Each structure stands twice: as C-alpha cells, then as structure tokens.
Amino acid sequence: MKLNIIFFLIFCIPLTGKAQQKQTMADLNYEIPVSKVRLDNGIEIVYSDQGKGKETILFIHGLASYIPAWKKNLEVLKDHYRCIAIDLPGYGKSSKGNYEVSMEFFANTIAGICQKLNINKVVLAGHSMGGQIAITTALQYPDLVSKLILIAPAGFETFSKGEKQWFRDVMTVDGVRLTTVEQIRVNYAYNFYDMPDDATFMVDDRIWIRTTKDFTDYCYHITQGVNAMVDQPVFDFLPMVKQPTLCIFGENDNLIPNRFLNGGPTKKYAQQGVAQLPDVNLKMIKKAGHFVMFEKSGEVNKYIQEFLK
Fold first, then answer.
1. How far apart are the first and last CA of the chain?
2. I need a labelling partner for 272 at 20 to 30 A (CA). Which of 9, 19, 109, 250 fits?
C-alpha cells in the first residue's frame, strides 16, 4: 500500500510552477526585456537592448555567466548610452550546439551581432573570458571597435604548456555537470570579496538550470570556453591593441591569478597586462572580487562614464 502511494506521489501528480513551465535555459527569468537575432551561421543570440546615446556599449559576459550579471550596470548606463548585453553562444538563452569554439569564433559572433543590428562602431565591455573575447575582437575588427572596457579580463595571466593542459584536464563536462549544490554556492561566493544578498539570484539560477534539457550542452560550452582561452592567448598581442582602453580589477580577485598555478596579488597581473597596452587606464577597486562590476557597480559605472566622456 505504501509503495502505491509513493508511486502516485512521484509519477502521477502533475508538476506545477517552475518545474512544469521551465524546461530549457531559455525559460530563465531575466527580469529585463530581451530580443533575439539570428546570425548568418544560424546561431540565435539573445540580447537586451536598452537606452540611447551617441555611443553603443556591447557587454560580453564571462565563463558560465549570462546577461543578468550586468544588471546593475545596465540600469544606470542605459540613461547615457545604448547598452546591449548578450548571451554568448552556448550560454543563457542563446543557441547551444556543437560549434567549433575559439576566440575567433566569439569575435566573429560579436561582429555578426553588430552587423545584424546595424552597428558600425561599438564600445566593447568584457568581463573575465568576455574581456579576452573583447580584446580578440578589437584585434580582428579594429574598424568596428572604438574603445575597450576590460573588467577583470582573462588574458593578462600567462600559462605554460603544462599549465594549459591542467586546465583542460580539470575542466570536463562531467565535472561541471555533477557540481553539487554546496559547491555551486562556494564557487559563487568565491567570485566576490563579500557576496551581496542581491547576487544570490545567480546561485539560484545556476542550481535550477541543472534540471533543464540543455544543461549538458551548457556544460560542454563551459569546457570549450576554457579551451578557447588557453589555446588562443592574447598577452603577446596586447601591444597591437590601438583602441583606448579602460581596465578595472577588484583588488581581492580570487580567480585572477589562478591560486593553484600562480598566486600572488591581483594587482601584479593587472599591471603586467596593462603594461603591454599602448593606451590604457587601470583602476583597482578595493574590497572587490572577480565580479567587481556587480559588487562595486557604483564605482565601476562612474569609471565607465568618465572614460567614455
């Protein structure tokens, strides 16, 4: 009798709420308006297009992230500029597939989005992996990119051949897929100096997407993003970046440098990177971690506006 009741509870009672309605990552609630554009290669990119202004800022998120990571920046900067935040291929609400992921692939994606949205000049704002993508795009499409805003960018820290292989070995699809709820919470906390309460939605979303149909595809894209960063470093090409650049780091970044391979203060690696850039302004923000644009959005937004003036 008890077994029959359990069977009924598990299999016969219809699902309600989120469990019933949300079946893919496209059903995530961003709480901001989004649109979709189809590129020539068939990939559909979801983006948020807000505000007006003489300059357009295109925001590129980091590894395993998505559009809402920029919410505190968009809500302020949209009063002064046209602000477009995108979900990269494989992330958030955008298409996921067996793409040949590389830094050039991402750069071509950025250029394709601008072409579809009739943008001839763009300021690229990139966080973490998005910073390395922004640098690659500026090098590959110098006439398109007018300025760069690099926020805790990947690409300033260099790795040996063995260290690059370590990244590939550590970051696997199953490793990402099987991350426990407890570890997810720890991982997100590690992205901040002092994780604010209004950042917990990122944790909730990351936990929820484990139930979606396209979660494994998302995990695949995370591993491919790591491979793209280590396979196509940008450090040696930084002197070729001619665009005026604003670089922002949190002084207490727990991800840069990699604590297992290098260690040391973040400022050392920030200065190491900006020393290679011809036209750059570095801002180090105290009591801020890797997600500095969220944790210290007021300071970051102020520096961005000063830079673009």
1. 73
2. 109
pLDDT tens digits for range 131-150: 999 999 999 999 999 999 99
Show the tokens assigned to 71: 């919410």
CA-to-CA dists, residue 196 to 39, 193, 292, 296, angstroms: 36, 9, 11, 10
Contact criterion met (CB below 8 Å) for 250 and 266: yes
pLDDT digits (tens, 9 = 90+) for 40-58: 999 999 999 999 999 999 9
Tell me whether strands 82-86 and 44-50 are parallel, antiparallel or unpaired.
Answer: antiparallel
DSSP codes, 89-110 = TTSTTS--------HHHHHHHH
The Cα–Cα gap between 227 and 217 comes to: 15
| Domains annotated on the chain, with CATH | 27-308 (3.40.50.1820)
Distances (CA, A) of 70 to 96, 128, 194, 211: 21, 13, 18, 24
For residue 9, the tally of other CB atoms under 10 A from its CB is 9
DSSP state of 80: T
pLDDT tens, position by position, 5-34: 333 333 333 334 444 445 999 999 999 999
Contacts of 274 (CB under 8 A, 6+ apart): 156, 245, 247, 280, 282
> Radius of gyration over alpha carbons of the chain, in Å?
20
Joined together, the tokens standing for residue 161 give: 């051949």
